[in-house]
Design a protein that fits this description.
By secondary structure, the chain is an all-alpha fold. The chain has 15 helices and two strands. The protein is globular and about 65 Å long.
């Protein structure tokens, strides 16, 4: 079986577990969750569905489990739980940042309103925690279930802390690159690290292997965040319409790097843009020109490459078998190519 087909098969199994968990409850709230997960349409909308979506966190969970020699079946509730926690974060991010679309369709809050979207996100977080309790039904020892719940809760809290600092940074021009990377490690890295650690523990690995794989996931998450930030600024080319994140004055890593490198006059020019109440397309173009001139693009590419190399190094030093290392490396490479 090809690597791509293998990952597709794992994703299909995670998705089936997710559907079982969400569809157990017949109530309109869960229709909103199904919409966000890509299984259902929305009232008054004619967009095509189902829509194939990534299940990155679930895939990492079951892949880590299998890579340490474990059976995937007992791990599926945890894989579903990590997906639900990630999707709860996505729904809240869309509300907080005013993103009207997610996965090329209207965001949940755009269809049902911000208040109901928050309910849907909170419900997904609660479902994720309940899903972890299914591990005991699959033969995972109670003490390990308790430890896994603690790890997931800690990662969820780190995600919330990262989102708080991310929003707080929007009105600042003194955010350093190191502070940004710490924020990204929480917002984007914590849950990926958690997925690998939890999967390894369910597969029977010791805490040392789990913690090393958690380091891999965290580095990968930050690298993907850096790549995502670059896509927001340059993805469509110099003549493209600015991404909504740019117009919302989000401190993308190229912006943070440029501010740290800029002269006083260049900082003043960027500050004049960021202190405007609302940014327009012309402001975004000016900002992009200044950032490009300060070498931010090449610097951020190097930053992402270093983080990916560190993630690979963590896999190599994890102590798992050669086949497991190969699958893990292939997964990291596939996720990086997708961005």
């Amino acid at each position: 079986m090809s690597t791509s087909n293998y990952f597709d098969e794992l994703t299909t199994r995670v998705d089936a577990e997710l559907e079982t968990i969400v569809n157990e409850r017949g109530f309109p709230l869960y229709d909103m969750m199904g919409y966000h997960l890509g299984w259902r349409g929305a009232p008054g909308h004619t967009d095509d569905f189902p829509r194939r979506q990534e299940r990155t966190h679930g895939l990492l969970t079951v892949l880590a489990c299998e890579s340490v020699g474990g059976d995937i079946e007992p791990c599926l509730p945890a894989a579903a739980a990590l997906e639900l926690v990630d999707k709860f974060s996505e729904i809240h991010d869309d509300v907080q940042e005013g993103n009207p679309q997610r996965n090329e369709r209207d965001a949940v809050w755009w269809v049902w309103g911000p208040a109901q979207a928050i309910n849907a996100g909170d419900g997904m977080h609660a479902l994720g925690r309940l899903a972890l309790l299914r591990l005991a039904e699959r033969g995972v020892p109670d003490e390990r279930v308790f430890e896994i719940v603690r790890i997931v809760d800690r990662a969820s809290l780190r995600v919330c802390e990262g989102r708080f600092r991310d929003l707080e940074a929007q009105e600042r021009i003194d955010l350093s690159v190191s502070a940004y990377l710490e924020m990204a490690a929480d917002k984007s890295g914590a849950l990926m690290g958690c997925a690998l650690q939890v999967g390894a523990l369910i597969g029977g690995a010791d805490n040392g292997i789990g913690e090393t794989l958690a380091e891999c996931g965290e580095k990968l998450g930050v690298a993907l965040q850096v790549r995502s930030d670059m896509e927001a600024l340059w993805g469509g080319g110099p003549n493209s319409q600015p991404n909504v994140e740019v117009l919302n004055k989000k401190k993308l890593i190229p912006v943070v790097y440029a501010l740290e490198q800029a002269s006083i006059s260049e900082k003043r020019a960027m500050g004049e843009i960021y202190f405007k109440r609302v940014l327009d397309a012309e402001d975004a173009v000016k900002l992009r020109d200044v950032i490009e001139g300060l070498g931010a693009r090449a610097a951020c590419e190097d930053m992402a490459d270093i983080l990916i190399a560190e993630a690979m190094a963590a896999i190599d030093s994890s102590g798992i078998g050669s086949d497991g290392k190969r699958r893990m490396r292939e997964c990291v490479e596939a996720l990086v190519r997708a961005r």
